Amino acid sequence: MESHTTLRTFLRPKWLLTHLLVICLVVVMMSLSMWQFRRLDERKTFNAGLLANTTQAITPIKNLALNLPADLNDIQWRRVVVRGTFRPSAEVTILNRSQDGTAGVDAATPLDFTIDGKQYVVIVDRGFVPLATPMPKAPSGEVEVLGRIRISQERRVGALSDPATGILTEAQHLDVERLSGQTQLNAQQTVLPFYIDLLDSPQITSSLPARVSSPKTDNGPHMSYAIQWILFSLCAVAAWVILVKRALRASQPASVAAE
Q: Which residue windows are transmembrane per the record (predicted)?
């Protein structure tokens, strides 16, 4: 009789709702934990690719421009050197940048060069300038640029987007495909499908634009977040156990009296 009474107690609507709530909390929090573990794996994969490409020898851009891989991620972060001429008239300001805790913009400037007599252009992110600071002009004449290859920036969920058509003088993202039409000087010129972060140039001695920061190579907080969600789910289970034990103790005197 007592066991049936106890069972009926835990099948009441209030208790059924409690059981369902705890199950939902555990499922959600464990899912978030697994998501953080996946993010950790992605970060480790990113770091491995970053290390592999940044440690390769500096190569002339010609070697990659004439032998582009099917997946540009295979060459992202590779260091290249190129000699050419900046074209400030086609420069685009990349908005909403942040570096070292300071808000500002980046300058994306086409660099015209030739390979075996054929015309090419690559967009160069010359670096970061804080807000309200005038953007320094790109140097005139031929320059030698050491840079690292980057693929187009993708729009994040909820972020501002750029107009799909028209000439852009300001952009939210450095999307090479979107800018290629206005970057191409003529029909004979090839626009490379990636851009480069400027790392160094003998012809550029000013402190601004500041060089774009290198990516972080740590694993981030994903492991601690994953463990945190596991602990939260254990706390939910522990709270449910405590509530059940209290309910059992509360029901014991009534059961004894009924007998």
A: 15-35, 225-243
